[in-house]
Amino acid sequence: MERATVIVAIDGPSGTGKSSTSKAVAAQLGLSYLDTGAQYRAITWWMVSNGIDIEDPSAIAAVAGKPEIVSGTDPSGPTITVDGTDVAGPIRTQEVTSKVSAVSAVPEVRARITELQRSIASGAENGIVVEGRDIGTTVLPDADLKIFLTASPEARAARRSGELKGSDVQATREALLKRDAADSSRKTSPLAKADDAVEVDTSDLTLQQVIECVVTLVEEKRAGK
Ligand SMILES: Nc1ncnc2c1ncn2[C@@H]1O[C@H](COP(=O)(O)OP(=O)(O)O)[C@@H](O)[C@H]1O
Ligand SMILES: Nc1ccn([C@@H]2O[C@H](COP(=O)(O)OP(=O)(O)O)[C@@H](O)[C@H]2O)c(=O)n1
Questions:
Q1: Counting atoms of ligand 2 from 1, which one is nearest the CA of 103?
Q2: What ipTM was reported for this prediction?
Q3: 163 lines ligand 1 (CB under 6 A)
Q4: Interatomic CA distance for residues 92 and 45, integer angstroms
Q5: Which of 4, 8, 116, 121 is most buried, judged by most C-beta within 10 A?
Q6: Which atom of ligand 1 is nearest to the CA of 149?
Q7: 167 known member of a binding site
Q8: Domains of the chain
Q9: What residue's CA is closest to ligand 1, atom 24?
């Protein structure tokens, strides 16, 4: 039986489980996977590396079209390059994390990255899981399934500081909440739940339970098509 292409949008704040869930769901269902946060991190890395003043939105806007960002969408080994350089490591530094909200708030940056995301999604032959902050609301408003993941700040901070060895849970919690506030209050496509998204609170669920929940929702959508 021929299977219909399916587009899944997964949004939510940091540490709710978007990346782990999206990768696993895509791998299990044979779909492509796109980490849009990695793209915003990549353009931020380029701005920092080229000495662009992050405090100056017009300076960022003026060069937003310059870096060439390429995302590999295999869920078992996603990749990200800027002008041919592998930046998978450098985009996860504390410096990039602390600057990404300012860069991603610039409308010219969002326009460029959104266009790239739409072209990747439309080129995914078997369908795709796209995760971020504004996928269900802005990038792919016609997605077949929209999920909005949430979790308590305590659960999210504990998960994140478990990843960053030696980090302080309280400081991680403050940094997460600061980034959430910036991402939720920006003018252009803020972090928000789409009206037709299914909200899943992952605070008391294991990662495996979240994955199963999303796989079931995708299969129900596919069956209903
Ligand atoms: N439901 C869960 N329970 C416990 N830990 C989780 C859960 N979901 C994700 N994690 C862990 O939390 C961390 C952050 O998850 P990640 O998928 O990167 O979140 P996000 O992409 O939303 O920032 C990872 O170390 C991941 O393994
Ligand atoms: N669709 C998206 C995805 C990320 N972002 C920005 O990129 C940052 C990093 O996203 P991420 O998904 O890598 O963040 P983590 O959840 O991994 O901490 C976010 O804090 C947002 O500022 C965005 O504006 N829109």
A1: 22
A2: 0.98
A3: yes
A4: 9
A5: 8
A6: 22
A7: no
A8: 6-224 (3.40.50.300)
A9: 159
